[in-house]
Design goal:
Low-confidence stretches of chain A: none
Oligomer: homodimer
Distance between the termini of chain A: 56 Å
Number of helices of chain A: 13
Order of helices and strands of chain A: EHEHEHHEHEHEHEEEHEEHEHEHHH
CATH superfamily of the largest domain in chain A: Tetrapyrrole methylase, C-terminal domain
Chain lengths: 348, 348
Amino acid sequence: MLTLVGIGVGGARSMGAGAREAIASARAVYMETFTSPVPAGDVEEVRRAAEEGGAAFRAVPRWAVEDGGEILRAAASGDVALVCYGDPYVATTHIELRARAAAAGTPTRSVHGASALTSVVGECGLHQYKVGRTATVTRAEASTPYGVLRENVERGCHTVLLLEYDEDAGAFMAPREALAALLAVEGERRELALTRETFAVIASRVGTAGQAIAAGSVDHLMGLDAGEPPHSIVVPGALHFTEADALRALARCEGEPRSNSETARREAHRMLARYVPMVGAAMREARERGADERVLDCARDYVADAEEFLRRGREGQAILCIGYADGLVDALRIGAGLEREDGAPDRG
Amino acid sequence: MLTLVGIGVGGARSMGAGAREAIASARAVYMETFTSPVPAGDVEEVRRAAEEGGAAFRAVPRWAVEDGGEILRAAASGDVALVCYGDPYVATTHIELRARAAAAGTPTRSVHGASALTSVVGECGLHQYKVGRTATVTRAEASTPYGVLRENVERGCHTVLLLEYDEDAGAFMAPREALAALLAVEGERRELALTRETFAVIASRVGTAGQAIAAGSVDHLMGLDAGEPPHSIVVPGALHFTEADALRALARCEGEPRSNSETARREAHRMLARYVPMVGAAMREARERGADERVLDCARDYVADAEEFLRRGREGQAILCIGYADGLVDALRIGAGLEREDGAPDRG
């Protein structure tokens, strides 16, 4: 039997009877500390619980879980516990290890723990059902988390960003490093997902006595030393007033909490804001020139449709209609031998 | 001091030292059971822990937490614990109560518990970082969760759907009821977010001895009696092969696990699949008719741009370009006195 035990964000003290029994009754207890920094005291407490129960205890590095050979062999013939920080299955390596055990016919079970993903959101006072996809910022990769952040913030969703932790190098990414990496992507892509003015939150050491929640502009947060890990960054999307109240009450907050989703407006809104006036001006100019009224009437109808689709949240259809209206009017310009000027969509 | 204590998904047995101390040292312990069904044995265990510590214990209904007057008054002058299933802050009522206490100057703290949101995903063997926004299906409201599901599945994200629980009526929504409600929305909106063929998972009583994970087509799942609550439904987006392996190993799985994100193709893909051939046919017809070559060349370039933008994931820009090309060609048709036929975008 392989039991995956999450000790939660509160450390070994937050282990309940289920976790302690799984550890005490195991023949071998493995503990991994590569998915998140774990205080030495917590490792010692798990070691003590294991040894009191007569189990062999071993702290294991990443490769031992990824390879999994020793753990799976031990679990095939006796009770084995793999102990982790938070909830066991936030790390995909643990899911894969469990699936391999189950596929080989070894019984598996879980003792769930409080995950940073839910705990962090709660400690910031944000509504869980507004949280979008999560991403991890690493030194090698800020472009993927930037894309996740953009999709979330455009939809009014909050984003929890986890930060790289490299146990072998003893290195964790500081929040200000992660923010700088995201700003660098913003500089290239300019999609307004994260700017120096974005309101964000740094949640540090959540669930422990040293917990700290700092909120404010990215500019402000980059000036802070967030101290010891683990840290997460939360970027709110649209803030409900009760969320703003909660942030004010629970966080060390520079300035007033504010929504970011108005800035990072959805693409359809940005496009219509740009093209509706341009198509309107081109239509007036064409009408004065005596261009084909049938085409102009049709274009006028599709501009109105684009705006109506946008109001109804049918964004793709809104973009299609404004593109179509733009094409109708520009065909008249091209036919009259005029330049298309700025009115045509950007080329690839 | 107000301490919010989450007992996790494993019930009162999963309470650790932090939770037990918060309960034992409180003057008053309130326990709410309206956010999720809690077994009577768990309520009794918390009551015992409270009374052993000399605290007054009270099970409280929803209004007592929403109103909050009694709890906040007690917490202003002594130690009070509010005990909940899962993690305390998945319920927005608890965040608001805490924020009100903090704003009134009452110290607050949390003992986090394992939430169903993370536990369910792990027990299904799915990758946490691919989980999109969560929604709750209720008898009154399946349209919002349908929209959340559509946005997630289009992006390849998994969706965790929580199901209505009405403690006062003693009623929970059965998974098959929730699936039927979502199918009814599908029938109206036809956005392919959830059909009878969609591959989905029902996770029941996660974290307890009676846990069951059933997977298969919606059609298959609607034929099952999922038994006692709590239940959640998980609709996978794009499945990585390791996730499919894990589902096969961990769930009672009817048929092979399969991705849903190919069916619910993103709007831009659907639009280009429809309009690129139509615009191409209209261009050929116009060229044969001797229409203005300058306009046709321009339309051809924009069709190519639309396809290139789609390949690069710039979906809004792809839709704009195909709409523009369509408009260019249709202006020629209108100018020639022809009907626009099926080639024009749908009207609002």
